[in-house]
Design brief:
The structure holds 3 protein chains of 3 kinds.
Chain A (H helix, E strand, L loop, with lengths): L1 H11 L8 H36 L2 H8 L2 H34 L5 H13 L2 H12 L6 H6 L8 H11 L2 H14 L2 H8 L4 H30 L2 H7 L9 H10 L3 H31 L1
Chain B lengths: L10 H34 L2 H9 L2 H34 L5 H7 L2 H4 L2 H12 L13 H26 L2 H9 L4 H30 L18 H10 L3 H34 L1
Helix pairs in contact in B: 1-11, 2-11, 3-7, 3-9, 3-10, 6-7, 7-9, 8-9, 9-11, 10-11
Chain C lengths: L2 E10 L2 E11 L4 E5 L6 H9 L6 E6 L2 E2 L5 H4 L1 E4 L11 H11 L4 H14 L15 H13 L5 E5 L7 H18 L2 E6 L2 H7 L2 E6 L2 E6 L1 H6 L4 H6 L4 E3 L2 E3 L4 E4 L7 E11 L2 E8 L4 E7 H7 L6 E6 L7
Parallel strand pairs in C: 3-8, 3-9, 6-7, 7-8
Antiparallel strand pairs in C: 1-2, 1-4, 4-5, 9-10, 11-12, 13-17, 14-15, 14-17, 15-16
Helix pairs in contact in C: 3-4, 3-5, 4-5
The chains are: A mainly alpha, B mainly alpha, C alpha+beta.
Chain lengths: ~290, ~270, ~325
């Protein structure tokens, strides 16, 4: 009986499960090496290669390949697309989450499923869909062509493709947070005389801000890294419709391996920054 | 009096609510629904016969089979190793656990084309560790494991964290062995998480392209996956052929979303009961 | 400021939460809505506040129809069971919120908040966040926040439900005193009959979406309108066709006129008072309340046979 009670104390000290010690140590180290070995082979090993290869041919060479005008342009295109897609999806994500959680309207389930679709759909299929919609035989292709607006093989289609691909992230983060905080605080604000707009800005928004920021970080990462959908609709024109990720492929296939690793290095550094942001934001989001 | 005024709506919610709903629907229509509709329409343009003929062309079938086959392998590996990883991250204590924990999200943050390039550097022709699987199906599985790694870990981890350890202790005090405790107490609780993470990983694996273009070699009938097949059809101007396979992939995505919805429904029903 | 509730009905799917409810609350009174869970008391309170909308019926505040008004326009203060504290704001900012929304001058807001902090005994806590307060303090903050815009009516939904017994007892006395100072028309919801009787001047007893009785605490206990009120407000057991309170039963060791045989099942000594649980000859259990002296004289013990005679009975038609 006493032993059982001690178990409780041990558990709270973080020592874990009561079982014969030798078995536990074996089991634990076994599982630990499986998990860590898996991560090393699949994740960490490959990642370290970017850094190694990029610097392999010297920092001077690295700088040369990064300052190539087409490469600089590709990064610019990527940033422009992200600068449009991220704010759009942030506003959409918050409004959509509010609609799903706070107004139990008929068809909320369908909206929910559509928001999830980009998570399960191939980027190539997304790209092809836009290609067919805005292409020369598509429903909208004619109209835009007649009005001299270039959608396909130009920035607009690349932005739309990226918005589609990165659509779910803000909404997915905000929905559970909105559910968790409930609507009592909002009701309290109403009884105190605050209108819908004031309540949103002063009560709802501050409560979900960490979820939004976390969603924005995920959205940004997805926008910067998008490849498949943009590859289909961009037309791949060097120095014009080429994004950083397309440029990696282009450089690699044209035997500029050092260039490919250079651009990859910059993208990898960006994603490590994103990762750090995610790590720093997560606990705050959980406790708020 | 009471009858005439029945079914009032809230005056405060009217305008703001309608606005948010309208914006949501309009945005989803323009960005998601219209393009998907255009795809479905294009695939059916030449009739169902033609659609079937194009979708079952030998190269298409081979690509779809490869995508589904590798996705199944990747899903199974994720289900097992993802669960173990989540377990170790929650129940084990070791130095650097926090770092390992945040590294899990790396595949979400790293552009997939970069992931492909790095895998090629480590496991390709110029491998520093002497493992060359470049341009093989093994390489495809490896690349897919990289991009799908977080899904199961991140769906199982929160459930494990919230799991009431006292129920396990209760089971042990009733004489259950460690294996029994896992099977009858832990597993039923984390199973929905494992399943939905696995389904998401499967869906992602079926549709992946960025991580594969550089490392798979894209050889028809050998290492050409469905998404690359669709891409190549578009590049060669065969929109019908691309659309047919794309619609098959779209149906797979819907099926996966339905599966996740089903899992969610079962879980919440269990909680309500 | 009076509240008139007229023919309110409300359904949630198949569940009839309120069924044609009408009741008047006098201006300046302190009223309790008492009932078991699912009786519709919280729904009624939320309808008065405009947080819930009735399927039919009308609400008037101070003689003016408020049925079409949003909660923002009703001028009611509402206190939630789980406080609904604005977690990202300090105590001071929480209390000031209603005044800021009304765009009152800054110095006036500061003065009023200070006043309220004193009123709810939270001086020195103004710059803390809700997470740094105890449950009782949070609830007092919520009260101050509701009182800040000087509402015509103060509504409290199970205000002490989430607190432990001691804090709850303190806050009851305190709410009573607060009402004596402010004389704001106050309605609170509770499922605890003792709380309702202790705090309110007027108790509205609800059950299954209907009002069973509206009365003062004493009348409610002494002259319950029906069997539900009799058994819900205070304890009662059945004696034939009549109902009897535990303290209206006399025990004696010998049979007498109109007495019935019973066996002692358990005796609980609660200090001055002794509670005996007995089983009647027909197998029905019931309770008797006696003083310590009475119990000692009878030498009550488990298994003993005694004779019970009601001294006061209530019958319902």
């Amino acid at each position: 009986m006493n032993v059982r009670r001690l178990d409780g104390a041990r558990r709270s000290a973080g020592a874990g499960l009561p079982a014969p010690k030798r078995v536990r140590v074996l089991k634990k180290f076994g599982l630990r090496s499986v998990a860590l070995g898996y991560l090393l082979v699949v994740l960490l090993g490959p990642l370290s290669m970017v850094f190694w290869r990029a610097f392999g041919s010297g920092a001077g060479h690295l700088w040369d390949s990064l300052s190539d005008p087409n490469t600089v342009h590709a990064f610019k295109v990527t940033l422009i697309i992200a600068a449009i897609a991220v704010p759009l999806n942030t506003v959409f994500g918050v409004v959509c989450a509010l609609a799903i959680v706070r107004r139990r309207f008929p068809g909320a389930g369908i909206v929910n499923a559509i928001v999830d679709l980009p998570l399960a759909l191939s980027p190539v299929v997304v790209g092809l869909s836009l290609f067919l919609l805005y292409g020369r035989t598509g429903w909208f292709g004619h109209w835009f062509q007649a009005h001299g607006v270039q959608i396909l093989f130009a920035l607009p289609s690349m932005v739309i493709a990226t918005v589609f691909i990165s659509l779910p992230f803000v909404a997915r983060e905000v929905v559970p947070t909105l559910r968790e905080i409930g609507d009592e605080q909002e009701q309290a604000a109403h009884t105190l005389g605050a209108g819908a707009w004031t309540t949103f800005w002063r009560i709802t928004l501050p409560s979900i801000r960490w979820a939004i920021i976390y969603g924005v970080v995920l959205t940004t990462a997805r926008c910067l890294g998008e490849y498949g959908a943009v590859a289909v609709v961009s037309g791949h024109v060097e120095g014009q419709t080429e994004t950083a990720t397309l440029r990696v492929q282009d450089a690699y296939e044209n035997f500029d391996v050092a260039g490919a690793y250079g651009i990859s290095l910059v993208l990898a550094v960006m994603s490590v920054i994103v990762l750090i942001a995610m790590t720093l934001l997560k606990p705050k989001e959980e406790t708020s | 009096m009471s009858l005439t005024r029945s079914k009032r709506t809230r005056p405060s919610e009217g305008a703001a609510g309608a606005l948010s709903l309208g914006f949501t629907t309009a945005f989803l229509s323009v960005i998601v629904i219209l393009p998907i509709a255009a795809l479905v329409w294009a695939s059916r343009k030449d009739g169902l016969h033609q659609f079937w003929a194009v979708a079952t062309a030998p190269e298409a079938v081979s690509a779809l089979k490869l995508s589904l086959g590798t996705a199944v392998i990747v899903a199974v590996v994720n289900a097992v190793l993802g669960t173990i990883t989540a377990w170790v991250l929650v129940r084990d204590e070791f130095r650097g656990k926090r770092v390992v924990n945040s590294v899990i999200d790396l595949p979400f943050a790293l552009p997939t084309i970069v992931a492909g390039l790095t895998l090629l550097a480590l496991y390709g022709p110029a491998s520093p560790v002497g493992v060359n699987v470049g341009f093989t199906r093994t390489a495809i599985v490896l690349a897919l494991l990289f991009v799908t790694l977080p899904f199961v870990v991140r769906t199982v981890q929160p459930v494990l964290l919230e799991l009431d350890r006292e129920t396990e202790e209760a089971a042990r005090s009733l004489g259950a062995s460690e294996l029994r405790v896992f099977r009858s107490i832990v597993l039923p609780n984390i199973l929905p998480g494992i399943l939905s993470g696995t389904v998401l990983a499967f869906a992602r694996a079926v549709g992946e392209i960025g991580a594969l273009v550089l490392i798979s070699g894209n050889l028809p009938f050998k290492t050409e996956v469905a998404s690359v097949y669709v891409f190549n059809r578009i590049q060669s101007g065969d929109e019908t052929g691309a659309a047919a396979v794309a619609v098959v992939m779209l149906l797979i995505s819907f099926a996966m979303l339905l599966a996740i919805g089903g899992i969610r429904f079962l879980v919440t029903r269990h909680e309500r009961a | 400021m009076s509240i008139e509730i007229r023919n309110i009905s409300k359904r949630f799917g198949d569940f009839q939460a309120l069924d044609d409810v009408s009741v008047d609350v006098d201006g300046g009174s302190l009223t309790a809505l008492l009932g078991p869970s699912g009786s519709g008391k919280s729904t009624l309170l939320r309808i008065v506040a405009g947080l819930e909308w009735p399927d039919s019926g009308e609400i008037s505040l101070a003689g003016e129809d408020a049925s079409g008004l949003t909660p923002q326009k009703r001028g009611v203060g509402f206190v939630f069971q789980h406080y609904a504290a604005f977690k990202h704001m300090t105590v001071r900012e929480n209390i000031a919120f209603g005044l800021k929304v009304r765009k009152r001058p800054k110095d006036e807001i500061a003065r009023r908040v200070q006043e309220l902090l004193a009123l709810v005994q939270l001086q020195g806590f103004g710059d803390r966040f809700p997470a740094q307060l105890s449950g009782g303090q949070r609830q007092r903050m919520a009260l101050a926040r509701a009182l800040a815009p000087e509402p015509k009516v103060l509504l409290l939904d199970e205000p002490f439900g989430a607190l432990d017994a001691r804090v709850r007892a303190e806050l009851r006395v305190w709410l009573r005193r607060l009402h004596e100072e402010t004389h704001t028309t106050t309605v609170f919801v509770t499922h605890d009959q003792e709380e309702a009787m202790e705090v309110a001047d007027n108790v509205v007893v609800m059950n299954k979406g209907r009002i069973e009785q509206v009365a003062g605490p004493r009348e409610l206990y002494d002259a319950p309108a029906n069997e539900f009120v009799m058994s819900f407000v205070g304890q009662a057991s059945r004696f034939g066709a009549a109902w009897v309170r535990p303290h209206d039963l006399r025990l004696s060791p010998t049979p007498g006129d109109g007495s019935r045989e019973a066996m002692v099942d358990r005796v609980a000594h609660l200090g001055f008072e002794v509670r005996a649980e007995l089983v009647r000859d027909d197998g029905e259990p019931f309770a008797v309340q006696l003083t310590r002296n009475e119990a000692e004289q009878l030498e009550l013990a488990r298994g003993q046979i005694v004779y019970v005679r009601p001294t006061r009975e209530t019958t319902f038609a």
